[in-house]
Design brief:
Elements (H helix, E strand, L loop, with lengths): L8 E7 L20 E7 L11 H6 L1 H7 L4 E8 L4 H8 L5 E5 H11 L7 E10 L5 E5 L15 E4 L4 H12 L9 E4 L2 H10 L4 E5 L2 H7 L4 E5 L7 E8 H6 L1 H20 L1 H12 L3 H8 L12 H16 L9 H4 L3 H10 L4 H6 L7 E5 L6 E3 L2 H9 L6 E7 L6 E3 L4 E5 L2 E5 L2 H10 L4 E3 L1 H8 L2
Parallel strand pairs: 2-3, 2-4, 7-8, 7-9
Antiparallel strand pairs: 1-3, 4-11, 5-11, 6-9, 6-10, 12-13, 12-14, 14-15, 16-17, 16-18
Length: 456
């Protein structure tokens, strides 16, 4: 696969009725003479941010919401591979709104909270996992490693300070392996790390979505460690300059309402949303749908207590690796008020209902080539039967939840066990082995054998 494209810039001009006078953002001479440029930093290939990035931009929801305000605004979308350059742009006053993962969010808050001109606040969640299933560790398909402990003393690529790196640190610590001296962490951007894994320069890769699923789908990697095994919530969210939020509350509210529009669209049309994101990013639609399909990422925008508590816990890790320049007041950093107002103005579900929403249900799903909808099954056995009886229909992808962690994964990349009459999928060999220690009668079988048994 060719390297993913370098950060790109794109702009869309929207006519609205509010004059730009008094705005903290400089007028833009390339559009209408009174146009105000609003710069949005996003990560097109980070699936958990698509409702505030790729999908939002593709559907034009923000521009439509701005048009309802009246005036002239020019929206400039800046695409990055990670959250760090978005933070740099926000500190420099060149980006007003951004989206990134939990660890980069906290680093952003720490580095901006000391100065009223740069201070930022977390305004919404774009995607989350109550168990931490958005970050994983993968190895080469031929790697002899069966568990994360097998990487002791090995070279692991990770973006230091990212959510993927945080998952690696927490997982190693639980195993009693010092995350600094027990392994050699190679600080690399995701695409560089993927190439290093391909060439054998590193023994493992710890990253955030969509990299683990992408590499596994392309047969370039095998899932070694499922972040869902940690049971620690992880999230991505929307962050904005506080001064901009205070002086342009209508613009920020328009953005959050647009995020709600994108969230509604994704939840109502997950397959179409995946196809749109795939087209815009060049990612395989099957890998996108792994995360944004039902049972994958939780796209509830609400700033739930469990997620905010997880952020407080994450600060310990960031302090340990020297990523905090200053202490961070998390309570001051998180501001739910603009999102609450956006929900009230948007109509439909209330903010309180969003806060109370449960985790996504586990779903067994088959995507047949050429189909405009997917086929869901009540159990893994019925999904296997659907695969066995597919006939001449080509299967684009099939998805199952890990029996223990619930993590949504590819059925043909899963480890399958027969336990009595049950046929059970596991995202990793490690999880399957752990299950067998508690269920000694369970036996590992191939996918082909599992399909044959399901069709009896």
């Amino acid at each position: 696969m060719p390297h993913l494209p370098r950060p790109a810039l794109a702009a869309l001009t929207v006519a609205v009725a509010v004059a730009a006078a008094g705005c903290s953002v400089a007028p833009d001479s390339s559009g209408p003479t009174d146009a105000t440029t609003i710069v949005v930093g996003y990560q097109s290939k980070t699936i958990d941010t698509v409702t505030a990035g790729t999908l939002l931009r593709d559907k034009g929801f923000f521009e439509k919401r701005l048009a309802a305000l009246g005036g002239h605004y020019r929206v400039e979308w800046q695409d990055y591979d990670t959250g760090a350059p978005i933070t740099t742009g926000m500190i420099a006053g060149k980006i007003q709104i951004g989206s990134m993962g939990d660890y980069p969010l906290l680093i952003n808050g720490s580095r901006t909270q000391q100065d009223p001109a740069t201070e930022t606040q977390l305004l919404s969640v774009t995607g989350s996992s109550a168990t931490g299933a958005l970050n994983d560790v993968v190895v080469a398909p031929s790697s002899p490693a069966r568990t994360l402990a097998d990487l002791r003393g090995k070279r692991i690529s990770a973006s230091v300070g990212s959510a993927g790196h945080g998952t690696l640190v927490n997982a190693l610590t639980r195993l009693g392996i010092d995350p600094v001296t027990g392994v050699s962490v190679v600080n690399q951007q995701p695409q560089v790390g993927a190439s290093a894994l391909d060439s054998g320069q590193v023994d493992g890769l710890a990253q955030f979505v969509a990299w683990p699923g992408l590499l596994v789908f392309q047969n370039r990697a095998r899932l070694l460690y499922d972040g869902g095994a940690l049971g620690i919530p992880t999230l991505h969210g929307v962050i904005a300059n506080k001064r901009f939020t205070d002086t342009h509350a209508d613009v920020v509210r328009a953005f959050l309402e647009a995020q709600l529009d994108a969230t509604d669209y994704l939840q109502q049309h997950p397959l179409d949303a995946a196809l749109a994101v795939a087209k815009d990013t060049g990612l395989p639609a099957e890998a996108v749908y792994l995360y944004n399909g039902p049972g994958g990422t939780d796209f509830d925008p609400a700033l739930r207590t469990d997620l905010i508590d997880a952020l407080r816990g994450d600060t310990t890790y960031l302090k340990s690796i020297g990523q905090f320049d200053h202490p961070l007041d998390v309570a001051r950093f998180v501001d739910p008020a603009p999102l609450q107002q956006a929900y009230a103005d948007h109509g439909g579900a209330t903010y309180q209902a969003a806060l109370a929403a449960g985790a996504p249900a586990r779903v067994n799903e088959v995507w047949f080539d050429g189909a405009t909808t997917t086929q869901t099954e009540a159990t893994p056995e019925l999904l296997l039967k659907a695969l066995a009886t597919a006939g001449g229909r080509k299967v684009r992808a099939a998805y199952v939840p890990d029996t223990v962690t619930g993590t949504r994964w590819f059925a043909d990349r899963s480890v399958w066990l027969r336990d009595g009459r049950q046929l059970l999928p596991f995202a990793t060999q490690d999880t399957a082995d752990r299950y067998r220690t508690e269920h000694p009668g369970a036996q590992q079988i191939s996918l082909a054998d599992a399909e044959r048994e399901a069709d009896r």
